[in-house]
Amino acid sequence: MKFKKNDMVTVEIKDMGHDGEGIGKAEGYTLFIKDAVIGDLVEAKVMKAGKNYGYARLMQVLKPSKDRVEPKCSCARACGGCQLQALSYEKQLEFKEKKVRGNLERIGGFSDLEIEKVIGMEHPWRYRNKAQYPVGKDKDGKIITGFYAGRTHSIIPNQDCLLGAEINETILEKVIAYMEENHVAPYDETTGRGLVRHVLIRCGYQTGEIMVCLIVNGRKLPAAEKLTDSLREIPGMTSISLNVNTKRNNVILGEEVINLWGQAFITDAIGEVKYQISPLSFYQVNPIQTEKLYDTALEFAGLTGKETVWDLYCGIGTISLFLAKKAKQVYGVEIVPPAIADARKNAALNGIENAEFYVGKAEEVLPEKYEQEGISADVIVVDPPR
């Protein structure tokens, strides 16, 4: 081992790891350095030194990479959400393309692959239609919301994430004001006491409808009408609810939703297909890129209206229903029963009659339907859980 903890080293960043950390060598010893980007020359402090490699903290950039940019967000280094903000967007896309290729070659054993260029965004900000903010207290006892620092459950205060909708900040201000005025305590992971754990916000990209769901350690919210009255002042507010999670674990959402005001869902659309989205629904968080993705899948599928399509891991039917208008028949498979219930509702909402949905494992349902009913597939779309 060439170095020990707290040693200062100068490193040129030659590569980037799977989590966006810079990788370089000091005297032949490999170091992983968060917030450094490929091409940087940096000064770093060794924080953990193993036999073959170690981890170091970026102290200063001695010579910036030509691809380094100033992060827009003031919390970029502290927050665990955006690992690549100091890298130009064009290079971010190249990094992701290289990551896909590397995984296919190293893990999949493929070689000589022709991989399409990553399709990026024109404006890669303010695109997320969903945000989940943990709620807690700072060292002075003040209620805060924000995001966790990387690999911790320490909240970095931030009510205006630049990836989310601008209205999120107003919503969080109203939630915190309600909590302070009505002495509602945030949940404390260490003691299991307190009420409000997270604030979930969803915004319909095409419809402008807004959902606010408080994840709570109980089944009641004191003076709930004061919160709903305040949130209803926001244009587009459509659904306000509680999600009950009384378990002492790190899972954000519980299974029960209690509606406080308005509908139990919001409606949004991808292309011409409408979807009802509940607090528990899986729905793609980047609507702009989702439509590009589905259009690309539709192009690759080459549907003429005569094909049978299977959508494996279909969720609430987003891809299934998008393809159904161009296919003869679509079958969706998903292991989560509430998601299949949502998929069937969404099919009815759009008047789509050539889509059927099944609860079960894809590897069991697909061969079973083929053996028992002779249902084969002309096209299979796979969007498995990561």
Describe the 3D structure.
By secondary structure, the chain is of the alpha/beta class. It has 3 domains: 8-63, Nucleic acid-binding proteins (OB fold (Dihydrolipoamide Acetyltransferase, E2P), Beta Barrel); 130-270, Beta Barrel (OB fold (Dihydrolipoamide Acetyltransferase, E2P)); 302-382, Rossmann fold, CATH 3.40.50. The protein is built from 7 helices and 18 strands. The chain has helices at 89-106, 167-181, 224-231, 287-301, 318-324, 337-349, 362-373; strands spanning 8-16, 22-26, 29-34, 41-49, 53-63, 130-137, 143-148, 155-157, 196-203, 210-216, 237-244, 256-262, 266-270, 273-277, 308-312, 329-334, 355-359, 379-382. It has a 7-stranded mixed beta sheet. A 5-stranded mixed barrel has the order 1-2-3-5-4. The chain has a 4-stranded parallel beta sheet with strand order 17-16-15-18, sandwiched between helices. Helix 2 (167-181) packs antiparallel against helix 3. The mean pLDDT is 96.
Name the features.
Rossmann fold, single chain, OB fold (Dihydrolipoamide Acetyltransferase, E2P), U5_MeTrfase_fam, five-stranded mixed beta barrel, Methyltranfer_dom, globular, alpha/beta, S-adenosyl-L-methionine, 18 strands, 386 residues, seven-stranded mixed sheet, SAM-dependent_MTases_sf, transferase
Please state the structural category: alpha/beta
CATH class of the largest domain: Mainly Beta
Topology as H/E string? EEEEEHEEEHEEHEEEEHEHEHEHE
Biggest sheet overview = 7 strands, mixed
Strand line-up across the major sheet: 8-7-6-9-10-11-12
> Radius of gyration, Cα only, in angstroms?
24 Å
Whole-number tally of structural domains: 3
Q: Tell me roughly what share of residues is in helical segments.
A: 10-25%
Measure the end-to-end span: 36 Å
- The CATH topology of the largest domain is what? OB fold (Dihydrolipoamide Acetyltransferase, E2P)
Low-pLDDT runs of 5+ residues are: none
Number of strands: 18
How large is the count of helical segments?
7
Proportion of β residues?
A: 25-35%
GO molecular function: rRNA (uridine-C5-)-methyltransferase activity
Pfam family, one: TRAM
InterPro entries: Methyltranfer_dom, NA-bd_OB-fold, SAM-dependent_MTases_sf, TRAM_dom, U5_MeTrfase_fam
Enzyme class: transferase
